[in-house]
Each structure stands twice: as C-alpha cells, then as structure tokens.
Specification:
alpha+beta; 3-stranded antiparallel beta sheet; two-stranded antiparallel sheet; 5 helices; 24% strand; extended; Reverse transcriptase domain-containing protein
Length: 210
C-alpha cells in the first residue's frame, strides 16, 4: 500500500480520508472465461456491505457492459462474450429497501400514536417512547422488561463513563499527522449559552471532557 493524498466524499457529504492506495490485478469471470486488468483501489476505514467498488473508468478499462435492469455483466473474452448474472441475494436485499407507493399510502393512512413512559423514578423528565402498534399487553410487558433492566441505560453523564473501548469508541475523522486547526468562536444567544455551559459542566464533572 502506498500513501494517497485524496479524500472520498460520502453520499451524505461526509469526508473520509483514505489510508492509502493499492494496485491489484482484478480478474472477473471463471477459470475458462475471464478478463483481467490492473486497478487502483483507495483503502478506507468504513463499514460497508461491499469488499470493493469499481468505478466507471475501470469498467471501461476491462470493457464490461453492465445492465442494472437485467442484473448482469457482459464482457469480451478470447472465445466470445461472457455473461455474469447476479445471485438472488442482491435483488432480495434491494427488495427489502424499496417500497411501492401504494404501501407507503397505506402506512400513512394508519397512524399509531406512540406512548411516552417514565421508566426511572429518579429521572422523571426522561421519557421513553413505546410503539403505538403494540397491544396493551405488549406495552405492559415491554415496560416491565425495561424497568427490570434500568442499569443498562445511561441516565446521566456519569453513567457514560467506564465503557470499554472494545465496545464503543469515538474518534475524530481527521487525517493523521496533520496539525489541528482552531476554528473561529461562534457566539450564541444568552439562553443557549447558559444551557450549553450547564451541559458542558455535567460532562466535565463526569470526567468525559476536560
């Protein structure tokens, strides 16, 4: 892997810094019918259901013709044209995401009000929303279950400490080795400033911030 100075922009506008660049020989097809080409891959630390994503320039390089409608790829080989069809897994995965407009209208017609419940007696201002689609018995059983396991939840900043880093860890999405840049201070309205100071003080007392 070699160093790379470019960054990638995600679907929601977030910037992801690359760990480096890797050149690999990619083979598409099987033993008898395949095509290959050297491709450059940008390595990123990001959760994804895919091992790799091939961009349009690389698709042109190996002269592959993709068809989303038919869920297949066609490309030239020594003995003619090879075809790769997608497995049933991908269409099924997409089918769970897409919803027809009729189903959306049906769901819009049936609105169930969520029930707000206070679970912890020491924190009456913190309410939990219980789904309105549950039956009366289901709501009661869910509330009992939650109340029996109050210790699992963080009710105050002090409860958020001592969590092992193997379970949860926050990190800043910045490039390693670069000097941090201090941004200009942004002013807030007096009421907001008071609320911010109170929240920051809670985090300082809990040892989360310094």
């Amino acid at each position: 892997m070699v160093m790379a100075t470019t960054s990638l922009i995600g679907f929601s506008g977030e910037t992801i810094w690359t760990l480096g660049q890797l050149r690999l020989l990619v083979t598409i097809g099987d033993v008898d019918h395949s095509t290959k080409s050297w491709m450059n891959f940008m390595i990123v630390r990001s959760l994804s259901p895919y091992n790799g994503i091939i961009e349009r320039p690389e698709i042109r390089e190996i002269r592959v013709v993709p068809s989303t409608a038919h869920r297949m790829l066609k490309f030239s080989v020594d003995r003619g044209i090879a075809t790769i069809r997608s497995t049933i897994l991908i269409p099924a995965e997409c089918a769970t995401v897409t919803t027809s407009s009729k189903e959306i209208l049906k769901e819009a017609e049936v609105r169930h009000e969520n029930l707000k419940v206070v679970l912890h007696p020491n924190f009456p201002d913190q309410e939990v929303a219980i789904g309105g689609t549950l039956s009366e018995k289901g709501r009661t059983e869910l509330c009992l279950l939650l109340k029996e396991n109050l210790y699992i939840f963080a009710w105050q900043p002090l409860d958020m400490t001592r969590v092992p880093r193997s379970i949860a860890e926050h990190r800043l999405n910045i490039r390693e080795g670069y000097t941090p840049v201090r941004q200009k201070k942004k002013g807030q309205a007096p009421e907001r400033t008071k609320a911010i100071q109170a929240e920051v003080q809670k985090l300082v007392e809990a040892g989360i911030m310094r």
